[in-house]
Design the sequence.
């Protein structure tokens, strides 16, 4: 007689991993900007986009702990993960492959198979050929728009949390809100006001005048309206320095800047749909990049053509019909390049070239005349650069923030949201 024995299904270890938490921990790996690569700006030669590099990144995230619950895997597998030679274990390889398969199925990565190479013939018409030694192409992957949007949301969430949302204390915070909200005591209605009526104050006025009786008779003088904050529309261009200095001096400044730009994009899309945001990268020259490609860009050439970036930002903003137009410039270096009238690029990396500085400040003056504000976020503290940025601020009546890659996001989001409202009296 046959018997069927049933056992409790415990599931695969890969199924117990929270993929969103894993993607968050892999954020620096996904957004890497050339700091770890010897081939700056050449994504086709970048080894960090290979599936093998992704396996190693996932393994490092698992070894840091807390991703796999204690009861989700055997004691032997946990010991294998902690060993330095964990990649040599077939069980660990299978676990990593299943995790990557889940990431692909849920739309976080898009695996790409290596191209098929047809081997050469082994013999020719005259003689036999030797065995060729060919380098096998690696399987690669691309991060999807879902991953980019998720990382932008998580960065925004972390930045807003660091600004403070505690229920205790009296410090003002800029919590996310939509629409128009009250901003003070009510006042009597005047002709032309929006009928955002304060019902309680209106009824109170009528009762005080006529006494407590039914029906309540109201007159024009009883009407009270809320004083509100007006949310103006704003066109913003993020002018992001991607010159070589953004990854020099032992510090990656470009990846945090990309994170902040992604967070600002998510904030505008979800909370301020009337606003617009464009991205311009400047290096030896300048180029507009779609926001969907922001996470994939890397540090480019060596020099810093600030004037060309300002020119392109102006052309974009002058097409926008918004209440406010602004440039948010994130940089760590002095202007060291200039596009001449004949198209050639003049370069001088030694000190502040008076010719380059003069032409750049003339472009700042054009922004001022066009009503475009420039807010500069400087990731360096050199004396000559401080003086240059202060001159820009003085000319266009913008703001200058001398920050680090770690505090850039807090300053930028606070500045953006503080200028989103103005009081109507």
Sequence:
């Amino acid at each position: 007689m046959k018997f069927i024995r049933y056992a409790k299904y415990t599931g695969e270890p890969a199924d117990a991993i929270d993929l969103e938490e894993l993607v968050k921990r892999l954020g620096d790996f996904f957004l890497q900007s050339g700091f770890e690569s010897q081939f700056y700006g050449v994504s086709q030669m970048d080894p960090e986009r290979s599936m093998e590099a992704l396996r190693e990144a996932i393994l490092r995230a698992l070894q840091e702990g807390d991703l796999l619950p204690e009861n989700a895997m055997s004691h032997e597998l946990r010991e294998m993960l902690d060993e330095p030679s964990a990649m040599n274990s077939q069980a660990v390889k299978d676990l990593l492959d299943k995790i990557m398969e889940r990431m692909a199925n849920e739309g976080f990565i898009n695996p790409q198979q290596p191209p098929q190479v047809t081997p050469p013939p082994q013999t020719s018409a005259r003689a036999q050929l030797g065995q060729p030694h060919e380098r096998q192409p690696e399987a690669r992957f691309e991060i999807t728009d879902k991953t980019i949007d998720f990382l932008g949301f998580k960065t925004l969430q972390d930045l807003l949390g660091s600004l403070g949302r505690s229920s205790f204390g009296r410090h003002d915070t800029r919590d996310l809100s939509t629409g128009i909200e009250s901003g003070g005591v009510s006042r009597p209605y005047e002709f032309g006001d929006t009928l955002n009526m304060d019902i309680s104050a209106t009824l109170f006025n009528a009762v005080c005048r006529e006494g407590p009786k039914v029906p309540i008779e109201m007159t024009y003088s009883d009407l009270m309206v809320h004083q509100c904050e007006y949310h103006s529309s704003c066109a913003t261009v993020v002018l992001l320095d991607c010159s070589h200095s953004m990854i020099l001096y032992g510090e990656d400044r470009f990846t945090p800047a990309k994170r902040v730009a992604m967070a600002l994009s998510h904030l505008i899309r979800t909370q301020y749909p009337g606003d617009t945001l464009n991205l311009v990268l400047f290096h030896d020259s300048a180029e507009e990049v779609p926001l969907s490609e922001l996470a994939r860009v890397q540090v480019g050439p060596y020099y810093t053509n600030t004037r060309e970036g300002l020119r392109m930002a102006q052309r974009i903003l002058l097409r926008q019909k918004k209440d406010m137009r602004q440039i948010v410039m994130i940089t760590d270096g002095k202007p060291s390049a200039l596009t001449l009238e004949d198209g050639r690029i003049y370069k001088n990396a030694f000190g502040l070239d008076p010719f380059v500085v003069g032409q750049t400040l003339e472009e700042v003056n054009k922004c001022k005349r066009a009503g475009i504000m420039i807010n500069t976020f400087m990731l360096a503290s050199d004396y000559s650069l401080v003086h240059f940025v202060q001159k820009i601020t003085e000319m266009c009546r913008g703001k200058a923030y001398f920050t680090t890659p770690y505090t850039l996001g807090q300053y930028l989001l606070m500045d953006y949201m503080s200028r989103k409202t103005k009081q109507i009296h």
Residues 187-227 form one domain.
